[in-house]
Amino acid sequence: MEIGKFYSREGGRTGRAPQDSATVVLLREGTGGPFEFLLMRRRRDQSFMGGAFVFPGGSLEEADSAPDLRECCGGFGGDDARQLLQEPGLSGAKALGLFMAAIRETFEEAGVLLACGASGGTVDLTDPEQAARFAVHRVALHDGRLTLAELARQEGIRYAPDRLVPYSHWITPEAEPRRFDTRFFLARVPEGQRPTHDPMELTESRWMTPGEALAEQAAGRIVLMPPTLKTVEELRDFSGIEALLEAARSRKIETTLTEAFRSEKGYGVLLPSDPAYSIEALKRPARPGETTRVVMEDGIWRTSSG
C-alpha cells in the first residue's frame, strides 16, 4: 500500500497558508454495543489521500459565508459559531461559514442533511418522492448549480448548525504542499435519514465502532490518516454518544498544528504534547497515557509516545 504519498517525507517549510475546512464525525447508536461513526473511502485515483477512509468534510467555499445564509439558520449566527468554535479572532461570517461548510459537505458526501422542515422536525428522507427530490438537490449542490441558501428557500427548510458540536481543530504541517485548517465537528445522524456515500469521490462507506476502526487500521485493511487516527483513538474512551457530546461541549479546544519529522526509523508527525515538538507557542503538556505522535511503521500509521 502506497502510504508515503499521503505525507511528505522531507522536512522544510512551504510557506503556504492552510485552507479553511470542516469535517463531521457522524454518530449513531451501536447495535447491541458501543456507538458507531461513519467512515468513507476516497477513490484510489485521487491525488490527495486516495484510498484513505475519512469522515465527511471539505473546504470552506465562498457561498458558505454568504450573508443570505444567516436567515436560513433559525437565529443561529456568527457570534454563536465563534463562541462554540472558541475562536474569538474569527469573523462572524467565517465562523458561521465553517458550520455551513460542515452541513454542505455532509450532505454532498454522505447524503445527510442537518436541517429542519416547516414543521420543525428533521428533514425526513424516508419518503421516496422527497428523497428523490433531495437527491437531485445534492448533485446540484455538489456541482455548484445550487447554493445552500437557494435550497433552503426552495424547500422551506432551515439549517441546524446547533446540532454540530465542535470537537477539535487540526492544521496540516508546514512541510506539506497541500495544507488544511480543519475544524472537526460531532453530530448525530438525524432520524429519517440514511447515509449514502457520493460515488463521484468515494467508493464505499462503513459504520464502525472506534475499536473496530483501530483494529482494521492496525491490520492494514484500512488507511486512517493521522488526524483521523488520533480522533478515533480519542473516541474509544467514551462509552456512548451522550457522554461523548457532553465532554465535547465542555472541553477546551486547542489548535493542533502537527509538525512533520524524520528519523532513522522513518517519518511521521508530532503533536503539540510531544517532547520533541518545537513550536513553542503551541506546546502543551501531555495527559497521562496520551500518545503524542503518529509515525509510519511497516506501511501503517500508528500512534505512539515520544
Range of strand content? 15-25%
**How many DSSP H or I helices?**
7
Classified by CATH, the class is: Alpha Beta
CATH topology name, in short, is: Nucleoside Triphosphate Pyrophosphohydrolase
Mean pLDDT: 90
What general outline do the C-alpha atoms trace? Answer: globular
Uncertain parts:
1-14
Whole-number count of domains: 1
| CATH structural architecture | Alpha-Beta Complex
End-to-end C-alpha gap? 26 Å
Features:
4-stranded antiparallel beta sheet; 306 residues; Nucleoside Triphosphate Pyrophosphohydrolase; globular; 8-stranded mixed beta sheet; alpha+beta; 7 helices; 26% helix; single chain
Give the helices and strands, then pairings.
Blueprint: E1 19-28, E2 36-42, E3 53-54, E4 57-59, H1 78-85, H2 92-110, E5 115-116, H3 128-143, H4 148-155, E6 158-159, E7 165-171, E8 180-188, E9 202-208, H5 210-218, H6 226-235, H7 241-250, E10 255-257, E11 259-263, E12 266-270, E13 293-297, E14 300-304
Parallel strand pairs: 1-8, 7-10
Antiparallel strand pairs: 1-2, 1-4, 2-3, 2-9, 5-6, 7-8, 11-12, 12-13, 13-14
Helix pairs in contact: 1-2, 2-3, 5-6
Describe the structure.
The protein is α+β, with helices and mostly antiparallel strands. The protein has one domain (4-252): Nucleoside Triphosphate Pyrophosphohydrolase, CATH 3.90.79. 26% of the residues lie in helices and 24% in strands. It contains seven helices and 14 strands. Strands 1, 2, 3, 4, 7, 8, 9 and 10 form an eight-stranded mixed sheet that branches. Strands 11-12-13-14 form a four-stranded antiparallel sheet, with helices on one face. Strands 5-6 form a two-stranded antiparallel ribbon. Helix 1 packs across helix 2 and helix 5 (210-218) crosses helix 6.
